[in-house]
Design brief:
five-stranded antiparallel β-sheet; 19% helix; 465 residues; 8 helices; alpha+beta
Length: 465
């Protein structure tokens, strides 16, 4: 076990003492974190693993080892502008047809995540899916929504979607509230797909939500889907639980490497808890991976400890951990003016499969015939375990039946395919558009490429064409 650690937050210097796993001798190592990027944390934990036998971060030990042979077509693999900081994450494609007499597929519009970049949500367009141009930004620098937090290193502008609803072009997006608190979903409006866009004065949905998606039916009815976001909540709760009750570590983590990893994170928790929300999540990445490597059994072990009767304080925290590990995707009818929701709110999807681990996210619903096909991403977005699944229903708000296993997974060329959208390709047949990392270059704010793959809808499944 690693029994001692210290951290100096201003200088990001860690001194860790523990037994060398090979010799058994007691050693102290000092580590310097050069910056606070995700990559720096992953490199730090990879070095610590070599010294103390903790788990090596997934992205630092198996780059390019995925076995899937899916043939993805790469559409955008380089930034088109220096203003597009992080590539093409969370891609949403809208096809705007020309007049039927032209025989053309029309124009494709693409909006993507921008994180904390000064210019939020690039809008790109293409006539052939091969040549793209930057048409502008939903929120250029200095023109952010009044209710949203702005500023590099502070703001979070994620997962935009562009849709034609009620005669307007609407962008649904997630951003952090101005007080730095919870994420919320907002709406921006324009008469054209390229803007200029004007954001509504207040969010459409608040209180920790992300990944908005809108399904527009042929009759004009629209439905909003979104994810309840607890990605960064359960790792912090678990670290706190283990810090208070370190005796639980052995029972929760059956192998020595993961016990050491959990011990490291719980010992560092007094320092980690002082970090900003996103950096705190990055610092807890080893604990996340230690749990998600066998997620369902871990939940059962933690639930068993609750049932066996721990101290009351520990039971309360453990129950909060288990609850935060549940990731519901909600759906509800959008009011005709797109400024509120109406009708019953339903949970349309929940993470309950082993491959999904602690989350499902990035939902997109496509209607084909009388069926509704819900595409979604699952697992940790920074690792090769991230993939895309499918669930099918007879109605927009479910119930949805999941297909067995993921539809799309990592390949030796592309890691972590996720957050799909659907549009017809140049041949008039449906295609999935998605993002993925270059292997070995995964993580928060790392570049994500735009990929596509053709699909076909069948009554009880989706197949790759």
């Amino acid at each position: 076990m690693i029994e001692g650690a210290g951290a100096d937050a201003p200088s990001r210097t860690l001194r860790i003492s523990g037994r060398d796993p090979s010799s058994g001798t007691w050693r102290t190592h000092e580590y310097r974190l050069p910056d606070t990027t995700h990559g720096a944390y992953l490199d730090l934990y990879a070095t610590i693993a070599g010294d103390f036998g903790t788990c090596v971060p997934r992205s630092r030990r198996d780059a390019g080892s995925a076995s899937s042979r899916t043939r993805y077509e790469a559409l955008l693999t380089q930034p088109l502008s220096a203003q597009i900081r992080y590539g093409y994450g969370d891609p949403a494609v809208l096809q705007v047809p020309d007049s039927p007499r032209t025989g053309s597929a029309g124009t494709y519009y693409l909006v993507v995540t921008s994180n904390d970049a000064p210019d939020s949500f690039p809008v790109l367009r293409s006539r052939d899916l091969g040549q793209w141009e930057l048409a502008g930004f939903v929120f250029p620098e200095g023109d952010k929504p009044g209710w949203a937090l702005d500023g590099e290193g502070r703001s979070d502008f994620w997962a935009p979607e562009l849709h034609h609803v009620g005669g307007e072009y609407l962008v649904f997006f997630a951003a952090r509230a101005k007080d730095g608190g919870e994420l919320a979903i907002g709406v921006a409006r324009s008469s054209t797909p390229c803007g200029p866009f004007v954001a509504d004065e207040k969010p459409l949905v608040a209180d920790g939500v992300i990944d908005p998606h809108v399904l527009v039916e042929p009759d004009g009815k629209a439905y909003l889907f979104w994810k309840h976001d607890a990605n960064d909540r359960w790792p912090a709760l678990l670290a706190d639980l283990l810090h208070r009750h370190g005796e639980l570590t052995v029972g929760l983590f059956p192998d020595l490497a993961r016990q050491r990893t959990a011990s490291l994170c719980q010992t560092l928790w007094p320092w980690i808890r002082t970090l900003p929300p996103m950096e705190r999540f990055l610092a807890l990445q080893p604990l996340v991976e230690a749990v998600t490597s066998d997620f369902l059994p871990f939940q059962q072990r933690l639930g068993g400890l609750v049932q066996a009767g721990m101290r009351q304080q520990a039971v309360s925290i453990a129950r909060d951990v288990l609850e935060a590990m549940r990731t519901p995707i909600h759906g509800q009818r959008l009011a005709p003016d797109s400024r509120s929701l109406t009708g019953p709110r339903e949970v349309v999807l929940m993470n309950d499969r082993g491959w999904e681990a602690h989350l499902v996210e990035g939902a997109w619903v496509a209607r084909h015939g009388r069926k509704y096909y819900l595409f979604y991403a699952g697992n940790d977005f920074t690792t090769a375990d991230y993939g895309i699944g499918v669930a099918i229903s007879d109605s927009p708000l479910g119930p949805y039946a999941k297909l067995d296993g993921p539809l799309l997974t990592s390949t030796p060329q592309w890691s972590g395919p996720g957050h799909p959208s659907v549009a017809n390709g140049l041949d008039g047949q449906p295609q999935l558009f998605l993002h993925a990392f270059f292997p070995g270059r995964t993580g928060y704010k790392e570049f994500r490429a735009l990929l596509t793959v053709p699909v076909a809808f069948e009554s009880d499944r989706v197949v790759l064409r």
